[in-house]
Design goal:
By secondary structure, the chain is mainly α. The chain is built from 11 helices and no strands. It starts with a helix and ends with a helix.
Length: about 220
C-alpha cells in the first residue's frame, strides 16, 4: 500500500511519530532504494523513537495482509492486463505497473471520497522533530542520515500527495515512480492512454474499494 492508504489505518492517532513511522519504509525507499533497515525489533529509551518503531512495524503488518489478499492479487493483475496495450514498447515490467497502479488508485479514492485528509497527514510529518528522526535512523543502523533528511524536507515542502485528488495525476505519479528504475518509462502518448485506463478502473472500484480496508482492519 502507498502512503495515504497506510495512513488510513491510523488516521485517528494523535502521535506524529507513529504516523511518520507508518510512512518511513516507503519514504526511505524513495530517498535511496539502497537503504535497507530492520528496526522493528529494536527498543529505545526515548518513547518518541519507540513510536517510530511501532509505526514501522504497523506498516509491515498492513503490507503483509494486503499482499496476501485476494483484492491485491485480482486487481493488480486485472489493471496490469488493461494497461498492457497502453504501454506497448515500454521497458516497464507489467507486474510492477499493475502493483503500483492499484495502490495509487486506492490513495486517490480515499482522498476523493473524504475518508482521510492529506493535510492532516502532512501536519503530522511537520510536527516531528528532525533530531528525533536522525536518532531513529542512526539507532537503526543508517550512518548517512542527511540523504534521507534532505529528501524528507523536500517531500514535506512539495506536498505532491495533494495532487492525488486529481485522477489525471495518478498516471503522472505512476510515471514518476517508474522513473526511479527506468529513465524514460513512457512516451506522452502512452501516459495519456494509461490515464484513460486508470480513470475507468477507478470508477469500477469506487463503490466497493473500502472492502479491502475493512478486511485489513479486522486483522489488525
Amino acid at each position: 500500500m502507498n502512503f495515504l492508504s497506510h495512513y488510513y489505518f491510523d488516521r485517528t492517532s494523535t502521535d506524529c511519530y507513529h504516523i511518520l513511522g507508518t510512512a518511513l519504509p516507503d519514504l526511505l525507499k524513495n530517498a535511496d532504494k539502497s537503504i535497507i533497515l530492520h528496526p522493528e525489533k529494536l527498543v529505545h529509551t526515548d518513547s518518541r523513537i519507540n513510536s517510530l518503531i511501532a509505526g514501522w512495524s504497523r506498516h509491515l503488518e498492513v503490507d503483509r495482509h494486503y499482499h496476501c489478499s485476494e483484492f491485491f492479487e485480482h486487481h493488480s493483475r486485472a489493471i496490469k492486463l488493461q494497461l498492457l496495450p497502453a504501454i506497448e514498447g515500454s521497458p516497464v515490467k507489467p507486474f510492477f505497473l499493475g502493483h503500483v497502479a492499484i495502490e495509487l488508485i486506492l490513495d486517490n479514492l480515499l482522498l476523493t471520497t473524504g475518508k482521510i485528509s492529506v493535510d492532516e497527514f502532512y501536519k503530522h510529518l511537520n510536527n516531528c522533530d528532525e533530531e528525533v528522526i536522525r536518532e531513529f535512523l542512526e539507532f537503526s543502523g543508517l550512518h548517512n542520515t542527511d540523504v534521507f533528511l534532505t529528501f524528507f524536507e523536500g517531500f514535506k515542502k512539495h506536498r505532491y500527495l495533494e495532487t492525488y485528488t486529481e485522477t489525471a495525476q495518478v498516471a503522472y505519479a505512476l510515471k514518476r515512480i517508474c522513473m526511479r528504475i527506468w529513465h524514460h518509462p513512457f512516451t506522452a502518448e502512452q501516459e495519456a492512454s494509461m490515464n484513460e485506463v486508470i480513470a475507468q478502473y477507478r470508477l469500477e472500484l469506487l463503490d466497493n474499494f473500502m472492502g479491502i480496508f475493512e478486511q485489513i482492519e479486522e486483522k489488525l
